[in-house]
C-alpha cells in the first residue's frame, strides 16, 4: 500500500492579535479542516506579531508570538501575511516588505489604504502580489469584492450608506434609549467596535477612510481620505436627535460618494465624497440599521440599486471577511494565479463641499414678535435658498422656528445659517443638520 502523502501547507504570518487578530487565529484553529478542504492544502500559523508578549491570549501558543514583525513577514517559510495591526506605521513598512518578499497580503487597514493606497497598491502591482482588503470597509459585509469584481463591468454612479459601526451604535442608543454620548461610546468600545483611538470613529475619520476606498473602487479614480469632506458626530446633540424624531426622521452618520454629472451628462464634472451626520426619514431602509450594523446602497447604471447589509464591526464579523480573503489568496497561490489589481484610470476631480447640492434642517430660537418669519425668509432669499417647509412653535422664551430647505449648494446653505446667526430676532441657532435620502421636492 502506498503511504499517504501529506500535502505541503501554506504558512500564514498574522500581524496583530487584538480584537480582530485573536478571532482570525481562533477561526483558523477551529475551522482548520474545512479551510483545508476549501483550499486544497492546509493553512498553518507560522507566527504572530504583537506589541506585548506578556498579555494573556486564550488559545494562542506562546511559542508563535514575536515582537519582531519585520523578520516574521520576510521569513522564507511564510507564504501569506495577514495584517490586523492598524494605523500607518509599522503596518505600511510591513506590508511593503511582505510584498517585496513575494508574499500574498490580506489587510483590514482602511486608514493606511485611504491615506497611502497609491504606495500599497503600487507595490502590489510592482511585485505581482495579491492584495485583498475586504475587511477594511463595513466589517463582515461583502462589499469590496462586488465593487472590485461583480460590478466592474457596470457604471456605478452612487454609493451611499452607514459604514461606521461605533457611531451608528452611539446614535442608535441616543435615539432609542435616550442614552448619553459618553456612555454609548464606552459600550461600543467594550464591544470591540471602536478603533484603538475612538476619535477616528466619532470624528468621522474612519468613515472618511472607508468612503475614500469606496469612491476609488466605484469610480476608478484617485481618492484619498484627505479628499473627503468629513464631519463627525461629536456635535450631534440630544436636541438634534429629538428634532429628527419630531419630523419622523433619524440621525445617521452617512458616507456618500457620487459622480456629479457635467453638461455632457455622463462624463462627470467630478465626484463628491463626503461623510456627515444627516437626518433621514424613518421610512428609509437605512433608518432601520440599528446598533453596530452597517448598510450600503450601490447604484449602478445597469444593475440598478443594490443594498448590502450586515455586521459592520466587531472581532468575529471582521475576522469572517479576513478569512474570506485568506482563502481567496491561498487558492490563488495553489493554482499560481492572482486576484484583481486596482486600476485608477479616470481623473475625476473631487469637488469641494460648497458645490455639493444638499438640503438643511434648521431649528432657530427666535424672538416672539411679529415679522420674525418675514425676516428669516428674507435671509434665505438673499442667498437664493428656497424654503420647502417652515413651522412655528412655542411662545415667549420658547418661541421656535423650524425651516427645511429645498436642495441648494452647500455653500449657499452654510452662508444662510451664518446670516441667520447675525439677525437680532434669532436668539440661537439650536440645530443645523443636513437632510438626505428624502426626495420630497
Ligand atoms: N475592531 C473592528 O471592529 C474592526 C477593525 N478593523 C481594522 O482591523 C485592524 C485591527 O483592529 P483591532 O483588532 O480592532 O485592533 P486592536 O487594537 O484590538 O489590535 C491591534 C493588535 O496589533 C498589535 N500591535 C500594535 N502595534 C503593533 C506593532 N508595532 N507591532 C506588532 N503588533 C502590534 C497589538 O498588540 P498587543 O495585543 O500586544 O497590544 C494588537 O494585538 C485595524 O486596521 C482596524 O481598523 C476593521 C474592521 C473592523
Ligand atoms: N471602528 C470601526 C470598526 C470597523 O471598521 C467601526 O466602528 O465601524
From TrEMBL:
List GO molecular-function terms, semicolon-separated. homoserine dehydrogenase activity; metal ion binding; NADP binding
Q: Which Gene3D superfamilies match?
A: 3.30.70.260, Dihydrodipicolinate Reductase, domain 2 (3.30.360.10), NAD(P)-binding Rossmann-like Domain (3.40.50.720)
Instruction: List ligand-binding residues for NADPH.
Output: 110
Q: Name one Pfam family in it.
A: ACT
Under NCBIfam families, the record lists:
PRK06349.1 (NF004976)
Q: What family is this protein classified in?
A: Belongs to the homoserine dehydrogenase family.
Q: What is this protein called?
A: Homoserine dehydrogenase
